[in-house]
């Protein structure tokens, strides 16, 4: 009878479990499966001596399977999860999509297209805002508004590397460099203080067709409401006037009046006028019993969210 012997051997001096032909109990020569096993498996390498029987192929396959399993066992001991299945601690995440999705999308919309707040992924925004601005706002927030500080150094949760990943990600995913090119838009930051008096006339020319004669609402909602103006910064108003809100149908600086783009002075002046409408003690007196702009805006965004679900 021919015998098959299955045993464990230490690797030979080459580091591999290869052995030469051996004799079976009857003294006839056997064919030996030569197989080179993975040298990183540790010293125990299963190996097979095979008789020239019809089981040879099958046994060879079994041996290969066992050795492969042994490799896995040595790589990842039982009970220890593979490295890639472990969740990262919040401070270790530097993937832009995850960082933006967890920290920003709730207000700024998926892919930066806008939501409760302006869309920082809108191409025009990325063209006028430089990296330093985006980094500063993200790190330190905008005081007095819903835009919180995200940097740990300013009381937020994100490390410097994570803020950098957000700024870089916004550029690489959504927009090229800070480069307005031939568009020639008004600068992101005002170069000089605006004139509120002149701004009133600018408002009438460029804004009243939608926001009403006095800003209290028309086709579009009120933009002089005390609660709205109390929660938005001067720069926030300026950014909106230049970039518009494409997600809400608000035009950018070029399209309030067909073929009549606003000049940089127009923008500064209309913002100065809006700022002059801000009351010192927002909420008092209760000027109107109508739904305020911010209340209706919140209701709209809640509706949109509900529909999106
Ligand atoms: C709770 C809502 C909220 C969250 C969350 C939020 N923001 Fe904002 N963000 C705002 C508001 C509101 C403004 C406008 C503030 C103002 O009036 O100037 C703003 C403004 C900005 C601006 C400046 C726009 C300008 O005028 O130039 C940038 C850039 C920005 N946010 C980036 C981010 C990033 C990046 C994150 C996530 C790390 C984030 N925001 C999270 C509400 C939010
Ligand atoms: C063609 C119509 C139209 C014109 C012209 C227009 N807007 Fe708007 N505006 C809108 C719409 C639509 C919205 C968003 C929905 C709403 O608030 O009713 C909006 C929203 C706004 C907002 C609020 C953005 C926010 O944070 O929710 C401000 C501020 C604003 N406009 C300022 C202006 C100013 C200043 C002008 C003139 C320079 C102007 N708009 C001209 C249609 C217009």
3D structure, described in words:
With 309 residues, the protein is mostly helical. The chain folds into three domains: 71 residues, no CATH class; 93 residues, Orthogonal Bundle (Cytochrome Bc1 Complex, Chain D, domain 2); 117 residues, Cytochrome Bc1 Complex, Chain D, domain 2 (Orthogonal Bundle), CATH 1.10.760. The chain contains twelve helices and two strands, in the order ββαααααααααααα. A two-stranded antiparallel sheet has the order 1-2. α7 packs across α11 and α10 packs across α11. It is elongated, with a radius of gyration of 35 Å. 25% of the residues are buried. The N terminus is likely disordered. The structure holds heme C (2 copies). The site of one heme C (HEC) has 23 residues, from α3, α5 and α10.
Please describe the biggest sheet, giving its number of strands, its sense, and whether it closes into a barrel.
2 strands, antiparallel
**Alpha plus pi helix count:** 12
- The helix fraction, in percent, is 25-40%
Lateral arrangement of strands in the main beta sheet = 1-2
CATH architecture of the largest domain: Orthogonal Bundle
How many domains in all?
3
The oligomeric status of these chains comes to: single chain
Could you say what the CATH topology of the largest domain is called?
Answer: Cytochrome Bc1 Complex, Chain D, domain 2
The poorly predicted ranges are 1-50
Strand composition percent: under 5%
CATH class identity of the largest domain: Mainly Alpha
Bound molecules: heme C
- Termini, distance in Å? 72 Å
* Order of H and E elements: EEHHHHHHHHHHHH
Total E-strand runs: 2
- Estimated structural class: mainly alpha
How would you state the average pLDDT, rounded?
Answer: 80
Q: Give the radius of gyration.
A: 35 Å
Assigned CATH superfamily of the largest domain? Cytochrome c-like domain
- Using the alpha-carbon principal axes, give the shape: elongated
